Amino acid sequence: MLTLATTNPGEPEIFASLQGEGPSSGRPSIFVRLSRCNLACRWCDTAYTWRFTGDNRPHRDEVAFERSDNQLTLDEGEVAALILAHNEDRLVITGGEPLLQGPALAKLVAQLKQARPGLHVEIETNGTVAPHAALDAAADQYNVSPKLAHSGNPAELALLPERLEAWAKDPRAWFKFVVASPADISEIADLQNRYGIAGDHLFVMPEGTSSSVLRERSRWLAEEALAQGWRFTDRLHIHLYGDTRGT
């Protein structure tokens, strides 16, 4: 069984769109958003996947969501059928933290690849959870987004050395760091040096949920990326659709 986020009560968040971030930006993709997360970012734009009523972990909006309206459980076959109703050849599994549901995801991906050979599967993760062995064998790409100090997560929870070392050695892993201020640059550079993250696999992305904020931060962040030899990524879906579910 898989626990998914919803677009509306009772409707799983499975949709086709353009990938908005990272190395696959602009590619037509099918998205499935899972619920639950082991971290709590103050600026998280999908807090409805984890900040349910009774969860007092800090968030800048301080909004609590009703679990029954924002979470849905389906078996792997049902989820596979909803995904296969779309024609795109790329699947993005996002969250929440998808790797918390590794065994069920392994079953889902096995069904999907049997039904649609050649399907490219990319998994978005905060980098703290090791992938289930069967899922790892079927994954084509990992978009790893370690959380910096400004996220509000303690480093001992968000930046696990053994996991960062493993991701840095995996050629399928692309790192994406969310940047809110110039002060974040030195933290990223330190992590790159400590774990040997390749510059051509390291993206920096402005934090923001509006085009105006993203553009303002992009001006100086693009210059930092150029100076450091990193790659820059915008948030294309925000510019196209705004900060909305199912996009």
Question: Could you explain the architecture of this structure?
Answer:
The protein has 247 residues and is α/β, with parallel strands linked by helices. It contains nine helices and eleven strands. An eight-stranded mixed sheet has the order 3-4-6-7-8-9-10-11. It has a three-stranded antiparallel sheet with strand order 2-1-5. Helix 2 (76-84) packs across helix 3. The chain is globular. The protein starts with a strand and ends in a 6-residue tail after the last helix. The mean pLDDT is 97.
CATH class: Alpha Beta
Radius of gyration: 17 Å
Major pleated sheet: 8 strands, mixed
Distance between the first and last residues' Cα: 24 Å
- Average the pLDDT over all residues and give the rounded result: 97
SSE order in H/E notation?
A: EEEEHEHEHEHEHHEHEHEH
The neighbouring-strand order within the major sheet is 3-4-6-7-8-9-10-11
| Corresponding CATH architecture | Alpha-Beta Barrel
Uncertain regions spanning at least 5 consecutive residues: none
Query: Which geometry do the CA atoms define?
Result: globular
Named CATH topology: TIM Barrel
- Number of separate domains: 1
Q: Can you tell me the CATH superfamily?
A: Aldolase class I
Question: Strand fraction band?
Answer: 15-25%
Question: Structural class, from helix and strand content?
Answer: alpha/beta
Count of beta strands? 11
Binding site for S-adenosyl-L-methionine: 43-45, 96, 145-147
GO biological process, one term: tRNA queuosine(34) biosynthetic process
Cofactor: S-adenosyl-L-methionine; Mg(2+); [4Fe-4S] cluster
Catalytic activity: 6-carboxy-5,6,7,8-tetrahydropterin + H(+) = 7-carboxy-7-carbaguanine + NH4(+)
